[in-house]
Amino acid sequence: MNKQTKNKIIYGVIIFIALLGGIIAFIIINPANNQRITDTKNKFLPFGNTPDIENGSFDTITISDNVAPSDNQPLFAQKMKRLVDAPVAGATFFTNSVGQINIRYAEQKTGDIYDYSLDTGISKLILRQNLPGVHNVLWGSNGQNAVFRFLKTVVNQDTIKTYILSFEEPGLEEKTIFSGKFLPDNIQEVIVSPSGKKVAYIQKNEQGDSFVMLEEIKEGQNREQIFASPFSEWLLEQPTENLLTLTTKPSYDIDGYLYFTDIASGVTTKILGNKKGLTALTSPDATKILYAKNEEQSYKLILYNVDTKEEINPNINSFPEKCVWGAGDGNLLYCAVPNLIGARNIPDKWYQGEVSYSDDIWLINTETKKAGLIAKTNDFNQNGIDVIKPFLSLDNRQLLFTNKIDNSLWLLELEK
Amino acid sequence: MDKLVWKIIIFLGLAAIPFFVSAGTIEVSLNPQTPEPLEKVNVTLQGPLIDFDRSKIYWYVNNELHEYGIGKKTFSFNVGNVDEKTVLDVIITTEQGKRFDAQKIIIPSSIDLLWEAQTYTPPFYKGKALPTEKSPIKIVAILNTKDTDVKYTYSWGINNIFPLINYSGYNRKSFIMSGPEEGYSQKAVVSILSFDGSKKANKTIEIKSIKPKIVFYENCIFNSLCLNKALSNIQEINRDSNGLIIRAEPYFFSKTDVENNKLEYIWKINNQTLTSVGIQQRDINFTTPKEWAEQRKSLIQIDIKNTSIYAQNTNMQLWLKY
């Protein structure tokens, strides 16, 4: 066999093998048979099918005829009254040692603390403090702990001071013991835990990074860091002992975000995002979020279910901070509702004090999807009341709130 | 014999070329390229050597056949949630019976780009500090992922300049830029890539500078509570009162400059500059004129200038009626 013949044979074998390989491959993966492809792929692709994604759906809360009359007359016969003459920095319900429910409050100008008796309508001085004007007082543990926020100003330089005061009230005849401590200066945000035994607050370093600290009120300076971020403009909520809510500070035309941070694990999860002017109020069991967003020249309340991602539009325009979740019933919301139709640059202008409102008080049942008018504040105060800091008694029968315009303290009795 | 071996190698190489060329010419393009969790993605097939219009095309998502058909060269599907892997397979059989496979694996990541302008707002102000010209703006990328062990590099850019090498790198989660010219906006972009390349995400935001703002309040000397209610442009005051203390709050000027007393406050009443008022005084005591019966109103004006940043200045006025 000469060399030329040998080469021809070798080339022929190579071409034959290549063709044979091609035919075998074509038979194996011939896509004319879909089932077969699927079967084949199943052997090699170990990933399961994508579960159906539940998209949030909108539903509308309707005003029930049997809950609120069509002429918008109030739902309940009720009483609303201004409790004290002086402006108030913060108030809470508290039960004294003989089981009476009273109101404990701090005066705005001095930080002096009083107990207001719901029976007699008389205020009794508990502690004189003479602070130089208090911005806000947060209460915890049945009025046994109070967090005072005030300013110290020297030549246009403001320093935010935060002071925690604890009460020990052994009995009616025994003297109350007070103890207190300062938190670091210039804390941007502070909240009291649901149990009232801890405070969570935001500290910043020189680079502007923020650190959320959790500190026992009565345990010296014991504190733990539960969150850190290069971003610092957070508003805090603590709906449960184990969960912290961080919401970005709002502006009408800026996307807002809301995150949950699990205190034990430190894991942060995004819950809401891309909502212009976002402000929010998380339910006490953290399963629902009442949030507001700036849309179509209004500030719409939306009820968001954290688990199902379902959204309900109650067709009510308000600020979540004008609302409070019903005590013991995660389905009830009491909201002060301003007239926000045509409102622009909200919530900025409201925070800057450039707009004020006369609110109506509404009750929203998130389960039955019904809402009804409870009271009109201008029936009780000539210019109405721009409600802030609403606070419910444990039996849901009394609603305490402050008028933003003059910091007057008001009580609405909700009994039917 | 050596010659023969070489011939075989060359022959096999040439025979294989079409396979490599064909495989490399199928382009599966995703829009968006780096989808957010649960986002809908549009897929298009492109390639010069395959006639897709005459080919039978099969689309699989996570191993499940979703669509197929002749000329079906576009497809849409939703990617999974954060950190969930979605595998897109496409199989193309040409009219001649030739088969081509392509695969895309998508692990969606989501970034939130938050920003905070380093501008002044009064203490306890609950709203957001807004950006003004030449004020620093800190942009922070928050990666929404449950997998905290993965290491990422962050690449930052402004407008068309990307990446900014000096501001990019491992764990560079934030970036500071200067506020754009008043009334104009600036784009900031971040691109995040995991060390192993399996996870990536991009985000762009646009930030617009506004003009600083002055709001008048009454009697803020001893506390900050006056911020709850601003004075209106035409403010009525009680004729019997002696007057009021007016505070001008300088919203959104550079925070550092406010803290370092770089702002100048120039007060005027009825167009007359108050020379007795200090240049850094943000409060004035307005006394109701005794001869109010004549005029019954006063014009209060203020100019606030940032002496460090020329562009940051503004003015405001209000009428007091008594």
Set down the secondary structure blueprint.
The complex is a heterodimer of chains A (416) and B (322).
Chain A: H1 3-28, H2 34-44, E1 58-60, E2 79-82, E3 88-95, E4 101-107, E5 113-117, E6 123-127, E7 134-140, E8 145-154, E9 157-168, E10 177-182, E11 190-192, E12 198-204, E13 210-216, E14 223-229, E15 234-240, E16 243-248, E17 255-262, E18 268-276, E19 279-282, E20 288-295, E21 298-305, E22 311-313, E23 323-325, E24 332-337, H3 348-351, E25 360-365, E26 370-376, E27 387-392, E28 398-403, E29 408-413
Chain B: H1 2-24, E1 27-31, E2 40-46, E3 56-61, E4 64-70, E5 74-78, E6 86-93, E7 99-106, E8 110-117, E9 136-144, E10 152-158, E11 169-170, E12 174-178, E13 185-194, E14 200-208, E15 213-218, E16 234-236, E17 243-251, H2 255-259, E18 263-269, E19 272-273, E20 283-287, H3 292-295, E21 297-306, E22 313-321
Shape of chain A: elongated
**Radius of gyration of chain A over all CA atoms, rounded:** 31 Å
Number of helices of chain A: 3
Query: How much helicity do the residues of chain B have?
Result: under 10%
- What is the average of the pLDDT values of chain B? 87
Quick one: biggest sheet of chain A? 5 strands, mixed
Q: Ends of chain B: how far apart?
A: 115 Å
Report strand order across the widest sheet of chain A. Answer: 1-22-21-20-19
Gross morphology of chain B: elongated
Low-pLDDT segments of chain A: 25-71
User: What's the alpha carbon Rg of chain B, rounded to whole Å?
Assistant: 32 Å
Coarse structural class of chain A: mainly beta
Global mean pLDDT of chain A = 82
Strand order within the widest beta sheet of chain B: 16-22-21-18-19
DSSP, total strands of chain A: 29
Name the assembly state. Answer: heterodimer
Percent strand of chain B: over 45%
